[in-house]
Structures are given as structure tokens and as C-alpha cells.
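pasting for the record
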Amino acid sequence: MPRPRASRALENLARRFGFVHVAGVDEVGRGCLAGPVAAGAVILHPDRPVTGVADSKALPASERERLFLEITDAAVAWHVAMVDPSEIDRINIHQASFAAMRLALAGLARQPSFVLVDGFRIPRLFIPQRAVIGGDRRSTAIAAASILAKVLRDRAMVELHGRDPRYGFDRHKGYATADHLEAVARFGYSAAHRRSFRPPSLFDTIDGQPDNGGSH
């Protein structure tokens, strides 16, 4: 079955209402046990379409890497921002996701006149915006933002793996897979882990295990 592609209809509609620079914004890594939450923001050029843009979760890694290069080359402006685990623990993942999105938008070389955001409206954003449910499947700009954020966050997790290979961050990218949970049960939390988020399966895995010193 062909993979569904995102559409530029929402961006084109905003432009018809006079908004010249329409940005898409999305976050990745919200549901992870470790690593930063990342957000991408991108203003696509209306006359330089990129073929094949779709929800980053539906694309293989090789396709995301190819699209990353094409999107960053064709975009009017783009930026990816990350919020680290200590800040996620301080303000919670919901607020950290919004913070990453605001930082991504603030980092654009060309400020947008309108923002399309996946899921929820961004609080304290003083730019006209529209929340789009399922936006990474419906809007090319949002899908492009999700690709940029996913590629750079994945690269950051591979770097974390190079510094501490015990957890397999290069494979699962911080998500709570069985092998990741097994590594946490064995070694405890690292500095890359979010202490404020522990899925029920983690409790099932580590209950009754000796304390291995989670501050490695």
C-alpha cells in the first residue's frame, strides 16, 4: 500500500489569507525514557516542493536522512531545538515539549507570520497559530518539521550511545523497549534518563531488583 503523503493545503489556505511565511512545528521524543525532547520548525518555500514528505514515524531512517537534506536545502528557514532530561524533570514533559517548540520557532532565521502545530496550541506563543490534530499526516510543513526533529534527535542519541553504550541508545533512541528496560534494571538510570517518567512496564521490570546506583 502506498505511504500517505502530507498535503500543502493548510499552508496554501493560510497564504490565501495573507500569511506569507507559514511555519510547521512538531516535537519528537515525548514518550521516551531517556534523552531530550526535540522540536523542529520549518518554513517551506511555496515554489520548491519536496517530494515524499510524510509523517516521520512512517518513514525508514534512510528516507528520513534523504528528506532531511532536501528539506533543509529547499526551506526558507528551519531550526531544531532540544530540551534536556534535567529540564524535562523540572517542568514536566508536556511543558518541555512546548518549550522546545517555542525555541525552535524563535531560532528560525525568518520569523513566521503563521504557525501550524501538531496536536495542541502552543501557550505563550505570540504568533497566530492553528493546532492540527494528526498534523504530521495532514500538513507538509508539520511533517517536514517532524522529520528534521527526528533525524537530529536520533543523531544525538547515537552520540549518547558513544559516551555510554550500556543502554543501547543507538538502537531504541531512548524509547522504553524491552532491552532498554532490561539495561535500566541492570545498571540503573544514567544522566541521560528522565527520572520523572517511568512507564508501568519499568516498575514491572525492576521491582524487587537490587539498587544498582541509578546515577551512573
